[in-house]
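Note to self: keep these together.
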Amino acid sequence: MTSHVPATIAPFGAWPSTISAARVAAGATPLSSLMLGGADGSDIFWLAGRAAEAGRNTLLRFHGVNTGELTPAPFNVRSRVHEYGGGAYAVDGETVYFTHFKDNCVYQMIAGEAPVQVTQAGKQRFADFAMNRDRQRLIAVRELHGDDEHAQPTNTICAISLGAGAAAGVETVLVQGADFYSSPRVSPDGRSLAWLSWDHPSMPWQGTTLWLADFNDDGTLSTPKRIAGGAEESICQPEWSPDNLLHFVSDRSGWWNLYRLCRDRQRTEGLCPMEAEFATPHWTFGNSMYGFRSASEIICTYIDKGVSRLARLLPGSGKLECIANPYEEIRELRVASGYIAMLAGGPTIPMELARIDFTEEGVEILAQSIEDLPEEANLSVPTSISYPSNGRTAHAFYYPPRNGDVQAPEGSKPPVIVIGHGGPTGMTVNTLNLKTQYWTSRGFGVLDVNYGGSTGFGRAYRDLLKGQWGIVDVEDCVNGATALAERGLADADRLIIRGSSAGGLTTLCALTFHNVFKAGASYYGVSDLKGLDQDSHKFESHYNEYLIAPKAQADAVYAQRSPINHTDKLSRPMIFFQGLDDKVVPPQQSQMMVDALKKRGIPVEYVELEGEGHGFRKAENIIRTLEAELNFYQNIFKLNHA
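Structure:
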């Protein structure tokens, strides 16, 4: 018989934890950009972020039974198109093409050989590559910047010659005239090109157009034909089936569902109408949520009430069959004839690269974002909750405090951190995240909110934020915190709100215009909406016309809603974190807020990080920010260490 060891008694928020900030930084390896290739299509490629190498992205390949690194330092496989990037490489058999973050050039690399530069250094950036084998060229989205750093770049779809000698690296524009392009996709027979475009002031999740054109004999394109989309219809992920039928995702029904262009190219048809999302917003290039096992079978993932499902779809009948798997978030999916590869995770499963063989049971794990998992007794498993919020229903994941070695004094209630996700057009998921567990293992509750405007719940829910950014998102965070306190799950006197980027505006507005939260943390958050318009990059330069107001009415609404104009109403302690190289939300946004709070004598801390942009990648800075934030809360709320 084993003797029972009494748990340590310690106040909520001051529990000793084995999940240190260093463990968070060392353990979280971002996995992204899944591709298939190799001589027979059996190789799996992906990008892994290296926090210990200043956040460098390296390309890995699973070949046979081994995993190898293809791009050693200093190569950083990362695109800068739209600032958010994505779609930084493509695979054609044994050959990889990628863009290097430092010089924005495209490189060609054959397995086992050193990368060879293809394009010349200049002011152009590339993303979202597609191979045009018949003409030995690479097709890509190109973003061309001029000498004036304040002028907006020009976006096109171009072809990059892969020929020898002087012909190598020649860039030829194929499509131009729109403000933005994405997803150039060459048909399997090499005869046609499909792509997406959109124009200011739309964002791609508001309105995009799907185009199709045939290649002329000289490699140019015939007159494009509009297939679907427009100002009020969002199209995502055009893909060709093996038998040359163009498929795509559209939200014309109010939900991102799958469609295809009929063989006569005169009409489109829905494949499986349902109230679920078969796509996510186009913040980055190269996203994939479905693929073809054959011409008559699609493997897809869709989001149902914020949770991902995996399924087999038979386009001929519209029959959808679920595929059993342990995951609740499937971020990316690629399909070969014999297997599925996906980046996926769940409440007790970190983001991992998984392979499912069609002829075998079970899941083969090829890579994990967290190698050193905390003990199960120290993991907080979230509950999906819904609650009323100003006449609508809001959604969130609630993580209770959990630490197998510690318990709080009887009758006490925990401080709760409410998180508003970034975007704001995005969503939060319940995949195991050490940053969240860092807080819950110390006795904090966490409420991760999918406020009105989040994706994963249909277009109507997504459009709740139209003209209401800084209102609906804030109300849903405030009402979520209130709901927890009313249910006895939170200490109403120790409610905290934190957020990054757009979530930083939610944080600042909640603390400025409401009295529920007692402290907050802003990670590169927006405080001045007008300044954001003036400083923002091209991709988001008109975003506020949707989120706040058309330009004709913008100034008055900006003044009313920007926290920087109402610092007299802000009396809660805050800590700010800001990358000094941030081009999305420039440092002056945080600096102005800090200065205003200091002037009024409000407790405030400011952490500036050199060499960091919009999001922190370096291990030492992940450690520094987490420890500083924890110390700030413990000092503000006088949480005594055990």
